[in-house]
Design a protein that fits this description.
Helix content: 40-55%
CATH class of the largest domain: Alpha Beta
Structural class: alpha+beta
Number of helices: 11
Oligomer: single chain
Shape: globular
CATH superfamily of the largest domain: SCP2 sterol-binding domain
Number of domains: 2
CATH architecture of the largest domain: 2-Layer Sandwich
Strand content: 15-25%
Largest sheet: 5 strands, mixed
Length: 221
């Protein structure tokens, strides 16, 4: 490993965390990712070979350990939480503008949304078809009392509700720039179907883990 040749704790931290993808792996583990395939699914631009290498490096650095169900953060790994979310705060304030086309991946957005749905208030299966109008793509969120999954092909269940929007609007909602109900009222998102789902989804969907940070940096009306 190449070093910077400076005796400084900032340098030592960069030597551990400065490789491409490393902090994003830590970010995803801080919000609950544990299994190899789960981490890979959330970082589709990262090859599985490089992911394996980065996980080994994080293990060697003492930030993660192998666990029965995949990987777990150590105390040193958990101590990165204020750093990672501090970067989110700085980024939201100083480096976060309109989404660029290369940042808008519908499949990863649906994967993220699936992982942030609170199923505690769901008492029966709810199938929500998500129509991303500008991409001509359909996805299906299948919500059960104890599980939420996303299907990239029609699961064959009866559709209970339909959510329609363009991809930039869905991303802006996801990161906390706009609220789902506000976007529905403004006509930027359409949500139709069974009343209990139309009313429930805004409460079930918890948005991105950094949504509150993004909201806090935006001017208040």
């Amino acid at each position: 490993m190449r070093t910077y040749g400076q005796y400084c704790p900032v340098v030592r931290a960069i030597e551990v965390l400065g490789d491409r993808w490393t902090l994003l792996i830590v970010r995803d583990m801080l919000v609950g990712a544990r299994r190899f395939n789960e981490i890979a699914r959330g970082l589709p631009g990262l090859s599985r070979a490089l992911l394996s290498r980065r996980l080994r490096q994080l293990q060697h650095a003492g930030l993660i350990v192998r666990a029965d169900d995949g990987y777990a953060l150590t105390r040193a790994g958990e101590d990165l939480r204020p750093l990672v979310f501090g970067l989110a705060d700085w980024g939201a304030r100083h480096a976060f503008g309109a989404p660029r086309p290369d940042e808008l991946d519908p499949e990863i957005l649906m994967w993220w949304m699936r992982g942030r749905i609170d199923t505690a208030g769901i008492t029966e299966r709810a199938v929500i078809q998500v129509d991303i109008a500008d991409r001509h793509r359909l996805f299906w969120l299948v919500l059960e009392p104890d599980d939420a999954s996303v299907c990239y092909n029609d699961p064959g269940f009866e559709i209970d509700a339909v959510l329609t929007a363009d991809l930039p609007t869905l991303y802006r909602m996801w990161v906390g720039e706009i609220e789902l109900l506000d976007a529905v009222r403004a006509g930027d998102i359409a949500l139709t179907g069974a009343r209990w789902i139309v009313r429930g989804l805004p409460a079930w969907l918890r948005y991105s883990p950094i949504a509150a940070t993004v909201r806090a940096t935006r001017p208040q009306p």
